[in-house]
Amino acid sequence: MKVLVSVKRVIDYNVKVRVKSDGTGVETANVKMSMNPFDEIALEEAVRLKEAGIATEIIAVSCGLQACQETLRTALAIGADRAILVESGEELQPLAVAKILKAICQKETPQLVILGKQAIDDDSNQTGQMLAALLGWSQATFASKIVMDKGKAVVTREVDGGLETISIKLPAIVTTDLRLNEPRYVTLPNIMKAKKKPLETLKPDALGVDVAPRLQTIRVVEPPKRKAGVKVPDAKALVDKLRNEAKVI
Amino acid sequence: MAILVIAEHDHGTLKVATRNTVAAAQKIGGEIHVLVAGHNADGAARAAAQIAGVAKVLDAGAPQLGELLAENVAALVVALAKGYTHILAPATSNGKDVAPRIAALLDVQQISEIIAVESPDTFVRPIYAGNALATVKSRDAIKVITVRTTGFDAVASTGGNASIEKIEAPADSGLSSFVSREVSKSERPELTSAKIVVSGGRGMGSGENFKILEPLADKLNAAMGASRAAVDAGFVPNDWQVGQTGKIVAPDLYVAIGISGAIQHLAGMKDSRVIVAINKDEEAPIFQVADYGIVGDLFKLVPELVEELKK
Ligand SMILES: Cc1cc2nc3c(=O)[nH]c(=O)nc-3n(C[C@H](O)[C@H](O)[C@H](O)COP(=O)(O)OP(=O)(O)OC[C@H]3O[C@@H](n4cnc5c(N)ncnc54)[C@H](O)[C@@H]3O)c2cc1C
Ligand SMILES: Nc1ncnc2c1ncn2[C@@H]1O[C@H](COP(=O)(O)O)[C@@H](O)[C@H]1O
Q: Is the C-beta atom of A36 inside 6 A of ligand 2?
């Protein structure tokens, strides 16, 4: 069974993001970039499926600038067998990414596609569900457990009320939540090995996909700042403030 | 112009998130219809008909909608879509699961988690864990939107008198099926709609220690929440997580106990009206957003706080 994993290159989660003064977006120059954390989890799950003898090949896909090659090399070091970069200078919105991934799925015919539930830059939480829709496949979002079972995946999902388990027919789309697994660290020997693994580059045009953005960003601003308040010495003073100053209790 | 709001409900009752979403629809302007997709959900449909400002309720009851599987709900909504300029769902786990599926089937770029409406095609949404606010304009004919409930005050649950129209649902997709559910049971208010939230972090040290927060939450009639670290460590269930990738809350009072205040946590609670932090590290970033902070050991301070509240 082939497994496809999508990996997005995003600003590292530890970076304090700054809004550009001209209001067009956020500062990305000289900022540390990493693989979207949810995609690391997706890849880890795929590697575990391969180690368990269920997956036979793992293909990592990233869409965006040429620099996404770095992210793909990391994916190869974690355990993907080969990688595909779909290179584009456009701002790729989730619908466009889903269309690209659909075209790749039609070529590669994976039985399972694992994506992150959310990219931590655009916070959209859309691409996996969109890909499932475009392919007419089943979906299981926000996965915290995946059990493969003869033509099906039984997936436990993190939902508002707790946990829900559903069974989805393959081929299927799964998106990862934080508790699915703990991704491994890449080791130096694996980084060396990754350099020799195949990395193919395609263009959206060649896949017949129109990636023109549908949403126009009018402006990007900093949110209103909260002022730091006061320190109070003890519980008694706190209760007094909450009762008589803030009047919230 | 007509707007379709997808209701959040547990079949019998309607969730507040529905009324926050109706509020967003009112900001857009137009006739508002509410879709109740479910099984034996007439109770929720009747409640939806009472909501102020709702013109019509579409009650699609069918066994294949009983578990709100995304494939079936999306097929239902897509069949209704051509009558609408906007389709709105609350940004709950159900809404987030199904809305993008609907959007893609309609060839529309969804607009996620809006917090403000500038015009019928222009919306404000947080990006980068709320560190930036983007104003985006949609060029699509139908706008598919999820609504961050904390961005819109819920409209009144009564005052409306909408007609209820029963509608047919498409057949089961056969793609997925429900297996089981583990619902965290609690007598407390719901985390996302509570007026007061008491949250614990890694500083709590164990699941057992979370018990010391219970008298405090009881006293304040608060919902209980947690940081990701506390959930990852298995102290408390996953649905307690507040943050960028958990639940977004904006209560009148948020009490953060043993939580350092990472950006990802702040993203979920920094719009609370009043924030209190209890932390032994005076440098903890949580103090930069807290209105009132106490530096000290939570195991000493929390019981003291409970005693003071009894006075
Ligand atoms: C992709 C991604 C998504 C994430 N999403 C979320 C999210 O949605 N929500 C979220 O919360 N986090 C999220 N995180 C994690 C986040 O980055 C932090 O790791 C997490 O919030 C830390 O939790 P914490 O504050 O409980 O733990 P810590 O940072 O370890 O802080 C514990 C605090 O407790 C204090 N403390 C310890 N003992 C005591 C005591 N006895 N008395 C008083 N104080 C004490 C310490 O001083 C410290 O400040 C995410 C991370 C990533 C990478
Ligand atoms: N440009 C991209 N390249 C590769 N994968 C992507 C890209 N954009 C989104 N994805 C995938 O879709 C998931 C959800 O992203 P989003 O819908 O943008 O929140 C991510 O975790 C990735 O797995």
A: yes
Atom of ligand 2 nearest to the CA of A128: 12
Q: Quick check: B21 and B94 in contact, CB under 8 A?
A: no
Backbone region of residue B208 per phi and psi (left: phi > 0; alpha: psi in -120 to 50; beta: other values): alpha
- Testing ligand 1's pocket by substitution, the residue of B131, B191, B197, B202 carrying the most ligand atoms inside 8 A of its CB is B202
Q: How far is CA B120 from the centre of its chain?
A: 22
Interface test with A, best of B308, B309, B310, B311 (most A CBs within 10 A): B308
DSSP, collapsed to helix, strand or coil, labels residue B119 as: strand
pLDDT band at B298 (very low <50, low <70, confident <90, very high): very high
Q: State mean pLDDT over A31-54.
A: 98
pTM (predicted TM-score): 0.98
Q: Is the CB of B299 under 6 A from ligand 1?
A: yes
B235-264 pLDDT, tens digit each: 999 999 999 999 999 999 999 999 999 999
What's the longest Cα–Cα distance across chain B? Answer: 60
Q: In which order are the strands placed within the sheet that holds B274-279? A: A230-231, B292-295, B274-279, B253-257, B196-200, B223-226
Instruction: Assess A187–B contact: CB distance below 8 Å, yes or no.
Output: no
pLDDT at residue B1 is higher than 90: no
For chain B, give the number of residues: 311
Among the partner residues B98, B102, B134, nearest to A217 by beta-carbon distance: B134
Helix (H, G, I), strand (E, B) or coil at B173: coil
Ligand approaching nearest to the C-alpha of B297: 1
For the Cβ of A13 lying below 6 angstroms from any atom of ligand 1, the answer is yes
Give the other-Cβ count within 10 Å of A26's Cβ: 19
From chain A residues 88-147, the ones with a CB under 8 A of any chain B CB are 93-95, 98, 117-118, 120-134, 137-142, 144
Q: Which of B96, B107, B305 sits opposite A125 (nearest CB)?
A: B96
A235 at interface of B, judged by CB pairs closer than 8 A: yes
